[in-house]
Design a protein that fits this description.
It is a multi-pass membrane protein. Helix content is 67%, strand content 0%. With 130 residues, it is mainly α. The chain is elongated, with a radius of gyration of 29 Å.
Length: 130
Amino acid sequence: GFLTREERRRLDSLRSPYNKFWVPCAWFAALAAQARRQGRVRDDCALKLLMEELNRFRGHCSLLFHYDWISVPLVYTQVVTIAVYTFFGTCLLGRQFLDPAQGYEGHELDLGLPVFTLLQFFFYVGWLKV
């Protein structure tokens, strides 16, 4: 709904090995300059503000394109996976409740189930898989 059929046809006819997010920005810049010449934009200050906003928007689009273009190396995902599993393995042991008043000899492990640590583990591993 943002493009007319003619604009869509022109955009699809452009050959580029990269994303074409910049084409509507170039169209907007040309239309803004034409609007200034026709007097639809009152003064150069207003045109300058329009172009600054366009440049800010274009910069954000470019940043998104770079995030999509440069993939995260496999080593990083492996390191994060090992770190998450190691963290929660130690949490299962470290967050055990030991009550010295119960008279545990040698402070043996309390084998109660740490429910919130398990919930935290399931959420983190779920996010890790996404």
